[in-house]
Write a structure and sequence with these properties.
- The structure is a single chain.
- The chain has 226 residues and is of the alpha/beta class.
- It has a single domain, classed as Rossmann fold (3-Layer(aba) Sandwich).
- It is built from six helices and nine strands; from the N terminus they run H-H-E-E-H-E-H-E-H-E-E-H-E-E-E.
- Helix 6 links the parallel strand 6 and strand 7.
- Helix 1 packs antiparallel against helix 2.
- The longest helix has 13 residues.
Length: 226
């Protein structure tokens, strides 16, 4: 199912969440190396201010990460665009996201017409993200579970995107990647993280490339309802 965004009147109005403000963000992303117009259009269209607390809405279109509670953040728009751009290079159709968070990254993927599956370990964050998906008319399948396990019942996936950092790539996730697919994940710890892209060839061999330094919250195991 291809998702189509259902915009609210405020999303196209004036002020700090207006289309003009969003367009300035797109100009910054383009100037900083994001070239895929599909990604830029999705970032332009998805109302990021609806994925943060109302008190932070005026900062929603700054190119910066923002807190969403529970020690988590909504990723910097450039990072969302970079990860999405890297994922699209192998033309995925079914994508697994590990770490739903606010729901913003999943919404961007769904706005691109991808079939999105997303896993979140913090129940309260997932419930809020589900409401946002429904309000925007986005079809995203979600699950409250330990993200390090992935979603084996729905595997394999053409693409996997991980929005929290582990010291090393998680084998359970790379095993759920289909031949020809791409996995994008931050890897590292407090001393530094790198955004890695893995491409699984038809023969099972994996090609890895480093897309540059990033900072993500840690990928934790287990689940919590709060």
């Amino acid at each position: 199912m291809i998702s189509r965004l259902r915009l609210q009147p405020a999303d196209v109005g004036m002020g700090m969440t207006s289309q003009r403000v969003r367009d300035r963000l797109i100009d910054r992303l383009r100037a900083n190396g994001i070239v895929d117009e599909r990604v830029l259009n999705a970032i332009r269209t998805v109302p990021r201010h609806q994925f943060v607390d109302e008190a932070l809405a005026t900062r929603a279109y700054e190119d910066t990460a923002l807190p969403i509670g529970h020690g988590q953040t909504i990723s910097q728009p450039w990072v969302v665009a970079k990860m999405t751009e890297a994922l699209l290079e192998t033309a995925p159709k079914r994508v697994l996201e590990i770490g739903t968070g606010s729901g913003y990254q999943g919404a961007v993927l769904a706005a691109l017409g991808l079939e999105v599956f997303t896993v979140e370990r913090i129940g309260e964050l997932l419930r809020t993200a589900r409401k946002r998906f429904r309000n925007l008319g986005l079809h995203v399948r979600s699950k409250h579970d330990d993200g390090r396990i992935g979603w084996p019942e729905e595997a394999p996936f053409d693409g996997i995107i991980v929005t929290a950092a582990a010291p090393a790539l998680v084998d359970a996730l790379s095993e759920q990647l289909a031949p020809g697919g791409t996995l994008v994940a931050p890897v590292g710890g407090t001393s530094g993280q790198s955004l890695l892209r893995l491409r699984k060839h038809a023969d099972g061999n994996i090609e890895q490339s480093d897309l540059g330094p990033v900072i993500f919250v840690p990928l934790l195991s287990g689940m919590t309802d709060q």
